[in-house]
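Hi everyone, sorry if this is the wrong subforum. Our group has a chain we'd like a structural model of before ordering constructs, and none of us has done structure prediction before. Sequence below.
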Amino acid sequence: MAKKEHLNLIFMGHVDHGKSTLLGRVFFETGVLTPQQLEKFKKMAEELGKGTWEYAYALDASPEERKRGVTIDLAHKKFETDKYYFTVIDAPGHRDFVKNMITGASQADAAVLVVAASDGVMSQTKEHAYLAKVLGVKQIKVAINKIDVVNYDEKKFNDVKADVTKLLQGIGYDVSKVEFIPTSGLKGDNVAKPSENMTWYKGNTLVKSFDSFEIPQKPSDLPTRVPIQDTFTITGVGTVPVGKVVSGTLKVGDKVVFLPSGAAGEVKTIEMHHEKVDQAFPGDNIGFNVRGIGKTDVKRGDVCGLESNKPTVAKAFKAQIIVMNHPTAITVGYTPVFHAHTTQVSCRFTKLLKKLDPKTGQVAQENPEFLKNGDAAIVEIEPVRPMVIEPKDKIPQLASFAIRDMGQTVAAGVCIEVTQKE
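Answer:
Right subforum, don't worry. Here is the predicted structure as tokens:
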């Protein structure tokens, strides 16, 4: 297991485009899900009047399993290909999927954008693609799913592919590097085995395509930062915060601090996928026990760092943003929710400093009165309560954020300068 390199993968896309079913099928085809388990899910699905949902049930574990959940596998599932082993982040199926999608994407190395052949590009297809880009997911595959619904029609595939290509290009992805794969999660076409129903398609299966992802550089030389996703109490161990190491390394014996909460202690044990390790590196999803902290001392949104180089708690920060989807305009005083790493904090726009030309990055206007859709700008922001955020040139992994309001992502951006809280 440890021989293969590890990648964090997120499945994203519009609701009802078959993400869960496709992922369940990937688990089935890679042996994570046994035929017996599938049979059990099939019965369950039929009893609940949800025929054909058996693959999706592989992800949405039962409440009691969730309750008993063990450290890291709580929201993560793993599977292997010939070359890598993958952790799939935050199974879909949440009403507030976008919030989780943001937390998930901030931890992902790569993404699969699932687009139904029958529907094509929809609002969440756009939103998720934007967010993935803003949150630093550089590698992406596109599964044009439910291809069975359009009778394996090549023209339909090409039409949807053209629309998604246009979307990804507009956001700034290099589409020459993006594979488009026609799939059927339900029927299994092209998931792990080439489909006999599409002789016109000569490319990889979805699972095979994953082997062409590249391992991202591991920023081990940067200061240690572990955004906390959750905290558990585990019998015989104690309090176990769980999160992904985004930069630096964490070792048993390290003296650490959690900010903004302020809890501090010494790392006693580190566990990854149920195995104890002495040291964790960037990309590792870990659960770790810290001497001297209780369950209520640390919460989601805290960031763990070393006492000797603490995470930066912002009193205010300067950011470059792009407005994507605001119904009117953004002005000084506007206070939406900022989602950065695992935290969600309301923040106030205190100054609109410069409007930029989105194509060249040159200043188009000083001190604009408002910002509207499509505008890029440099702004000053004040969190209403303490939050950790790092400048892009110091720790880029903790610099990006999405701005949400009224149930949608209105803007996204990256922190360029921080005024530290005393």
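For your construct planning: The chain is about 20% helix and 35% strand. The mean pLDDT is 86.
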